[in-house]
Amino acid sequence: MWTQIYDPMNSIFLSALISAIPMVYYLWALAIKRMKGHIAGITTVLLSIIIAILVYGMPINLALLTTGYGALYGIWPISWIIVTAVFLYKITVKTGQFDIIRSSVVTITEDRRLQALLIAFSFGAFLEGAAGYGTPVAISAALLVGLGFEPLYAAGLALIANTAPVAFGAIGIPVIVAGNTTGIDPFLISQMVGRQLPFLSFFVPFWLVFIMSGWKGTKEVMPAILVSGGSFAIAQYFTSNFIGPELPDITSALFSLVATALFLKVWKPKTIFRFKNETVKTSTQNHQTYTTGQIIKAWSPFILLTAFIIIWGIPSIKNILGQTTIKFHIPGLDKAVMQTAPIVTKATPYAAVFKFDWLAAAGTAILLAAFISKFIVGMSMRDWLNTFAETLNELKFPIITISSVLGLAYIYNYAGMSGTLGLALAKTGHLFPFFAPILGWLGVFLTGSDTSANALFGNLQKITANQIGVNPVLTVAANSSGGVTGKMISPQSIAVATASTGLVGKEGDLFRFTFKHSIMFVIIISIMTYVQAYFLSWMIP
After folding, report:
1. Which of 167, 212, 230, 43 is nearest to 479 (CA)?
2. What whole-number distance in Å separates Cα of residue 352 and Cα of residue 360?
3. Which of 192, 292, 314, 514 could bridge across to 477 with cysteines, CB 3.0–4.6 Å?
């Protein structure tokens, strides 16, 4: 068994500097060099393997097995979700149903700003709460492109909008995992997250519109922004503080979606916003009157998607489906790496068990929705299969990208490199509450998951908070709240967004689009956490 070493250079800050080299390289490769995503991902993971072996002393076989193990999770369940989500969207396009979907959205509002609030913010949050794991970005970004949004804007807006619901995604799994990891009551963490994120949730719709249309355009639709963000934030606060971590996204998204849609029935902006290269003709093409039956038929694939995802998320159903899961203990890696304090409370061997949840996976639920949709929209089996094959072919490079970045996440965790970065931030003493959200941001950037970031750094947050005399509920919650701001720049999320909008090879452009927003959001959460730690401690449950 190999034991992790977190300070191979005998200077935690020098060790952290070295462990950050692959991350810096990846940022350079995407943002400056503008490499294609799969090239940047593969070269970054190779660099990480070299550092893990030469600097951290990780045995070569463990380094390679770890990377392969992570790549497997990139294929299943992450890539499986992306493939099925894009496939479902392509079914509506191939059968002409998306023209009706587009028209039905236009009857609510032709304004691109308001369409972004409805689709990217509210509907995307609902999908995050029900399924998570890339589903909301894939579906909402594809819908925006179908409505006529520029692909880069569609992908970028979907990623930024996904900030608000991530901490309570997939029926509250990130918060529940944070509680399990730290021994803190998940309901307390839920309450604390619910006293941080609603402020950001209220702000996100404003910022989405501001990105699209500037201050002048934002003022024109301020009433709708207040309804969209305000209704979401209020529901998120009350659900997280008085019910628990499982339902804040579902209730907030539905409340926001219904409130905004009803508001737009009685209020319209003075001008209709469209993108610069758009004309009235192109933005309203195919807009005609359809019957209620035609509209329901067109939306049926996404109605089925929603229904199946909700059913798959019910705990009792999930347990039944989970009984079909096939588990593989990775030979030579399972319990071959030992984590040591202070990353964990006591020395713990790293398990390496790959779970092939072929029936319980969210992607399978989406595939079933796609299969039933075939009969509703009148698609032949041959065309259905050809569309699926076409989807797989289009997504081959994104699958490589996702697999490589999951390999990167796992080598960081198993080699102890992520632990090094966490320990370095934990050395900031009195300033640690400011850096606590940044630790979560870092964890999500590395792993692509708020759940994984909480599992990775939750205990470190608790230990450090106790050392400096701050309530650990705050810092553990801040890990999750800060983590949501890293989702939009996570390599995994970038790959998902480019795959669903036809931007494969343009990952660098999308990364440049979202990076500055991610930094701004995490600083907001950091300042909020610092103030709550020392000046508004009454807000901590």
Report:
1. 167
2. 20
3. 192
